[in-house]
Amino acid sequence: MFNFEEGEVILIDKPLDWTSFDTVNFIRSLVNRCYGIRKLKVGHAGTLDPLATGLLILCTGKKTKQIDIYQAQVKTYTGTILLGQTTPTFDLESEPDAFFPTDGITAEQIEAARLKFIGDIKQYPPKYSAIKIKGKRAFDYARSDEEIELKARDIRIDDFKLSLDRFPELDFEVTCSKGTYIRSLANDFGKALGNGACLKSLRRTRIGDFRVEDAWPLMELKQHIIDTGDEFKEWKKTEQERLEGKK
Questions:
Q1: pLDDT tens per residue across span 154-206
Q2: Is 49 one of the annotated active-site residues of the chain?
């Protein structure tokens, strides 16, 4: 049985097409309905795009104070980079805006490009991102075709593995610091090849010592909250009666 008000750290395997905010709002609403807790504090430690799946850490109640600690942890992602095209969003959420031939790309060129992204590097976030600039999200400027100046960030990539087995799709595993945009990594990797690339798929598998294998599938968590809700309400009623009896 959860103690949401005191605080819980819940690992969720975020499904495809859900935003991180969708997931937070879904859990908050579900807890309100099943546990009778209104205005519960719920937050997540690190945004996942709608087209990404995998580990999302949710904190409730007093444990929301620990969100910054979890956000700062090293993260691991797996996924696929698609060579030969670019998109405005750096992933498949938007239509391609340019195409490039890939038949001349060699394994040696891919390895040389890969090595450029290991270690401490500068990275520009995507213009279609939730970064705030003058109180407005970057994607709001992008959608209205307003020019904005995005500043490069200091990030670190500890490991960047690539598989050429399905070329021109490159399966990858990346271990990186907080603030790394894998969409930007895919786009920048294409540029380093003198070609183009975008992110085809993404899955977060680890945050610090937390792993997606230990996470709740969202619908299983939903059912567990429903199942334990009545038990919690009965416990709370008994606890209130006990406290009133001491007065």
A1: 999 999 999 999 999 999 999 999 999 999 999 999 999 999 999 999 999 99
A2: yes
Q: How far is the C-alpha of 224 from the C-alpha of 228, rounded, in Å? A: 6
Would the pLDDT of 28 be above 80? yes
Compute the distance between CA of residue 45 and CA of residue 64 in angstroms, rounded to an integer.
9
Tell me: domain 9-71+209-239, CATH 3.30.70, correct?
yes
- The domain locations on the chain are 9-71+209-239, 75-206
**CA-to-CA separations, 200 to 29, 34, 56, 172, 175, in angstroms, rounded:** 32, 37, 20, 11, 18
Confidence band, pLDDT 50/70/90 cuts, at residue 246: low
Question: Given 13, 17, 22, 49, which residue is catalytic?
Answer: 49
Task: Record the tokens describing residue 210, joined without a space.
Answer: 């937390």
C-alpha closest to that of 22 among 67, 64, 56: 56
Q: Does domain 75-206 have CATH number 3.40.50.720?
A: no
Q: Mean pLDDT highest for which of 40-49, 144-153, 185-194, 228-237?
A: 185-194
* AA identity, residue 190: G
- Tell me the residue length of the chain: 247
Task: Give strand ranges (E) for the chain.
Answer: 9-14, 42-44, 52-60, 75-83, 85-86, 98-99, 119-123, 132-133, 136-137, 153-166, 169-176, 197-207, 210-211, 216-217
What is the distance, to the nearest Å, from the Cα of residue 247 to the centroid of all Cα atoms in its chain? 48
| pLDDT tens, position by position, 101-148 | 999 999 999 999 999 999 999 999 888 666 666 666 666 655 666 677
Q: Give the integer Cα–Cα distance in Å for 92 and 82.
A: 10
